């Protein structure tokens, strides 16, 4: 995908003429998103709730593949074709700043209508530019350590042995579990940076600092993350594979003893009914660096209203009424879709208090929602995916024993060339 930064003057002219060409008729809000069984279905539910109190409003949810949503939005914004845009669009959090910075003024400022103090702080920060918040926070990717109780017990460990541990201790346990059970501790795709992302954010750092400048060479959290990945690779406790299908397959088949990922993987784990009662959830391990915590995030997305929308005010009112205030709505989407939202008040609802027999009676949703409030806020910047590609490309150097500081310097130099 090629990104083009649109000047404020150009965009201002586009916005001034776009009111004549907005999509849909009065009272119809058009939404673009991906995944009809999750994002699309949840948005439809939200639309039904709002329409019950506002009979003149209808919601049109248009589902595309995620890559197509991004390409269509990029193309429309770059060309200034307002009639090709929806009223609301779903954007992955990792990409938010790229859109906000490349197309200043394209997305409505929701700050005046929405009380963002009620949301997880890290989610609000991801959609903020110059103090203005441009999105309605949606689903969380709060991370956890999922583990097989039976495998741990077979290796002589209890659930308590995974509580509040460091990555070094995790690797010690991993070696013992693999040796005694024959099962790998964890499955890792060397081409997927998700574990690096989880580790780095858990210590409150990212590839970029708070001002969006590259933060690689002196980034102790990133350094520790890469060193940990190298130690894991050398431990003999990792199942190496390629791609989403192989990764989820290793979980379902019982090949691995633990999974460290976002809360959204819960549905995949629970899809294996014969494994009910065999799983548990613990906080992720912590790095041994300044600012280290046991809370992090992987993935997640938010809803953005287009400034050019004819239905802008109604779209904002809709999002505010349901996603920012309706606690019962969050109980429903948790129960029916496994969606852990970002509204902190939802944590007090009944659905979050339920024990889950699949996870040995743990109150899994309550646990994840408690961790949600602890996730360190970071700045993803406009080029997370680009830097990811450089980091992944040099991970084999670190595994092979190259000095980490030298590799980090190389990564920073290459990243600078890639994004400038």
UniProtKB/TrEMBL annotation:
It is found in: Periplasm. Keywords: Plasmid, Signal. Residues 1-21 form the signal peptide. GO terms for cellular component: periplasmic space. Belongs to the bacterial solute-binding protein 1 family. This is ABC transporter substrate-binding protein.
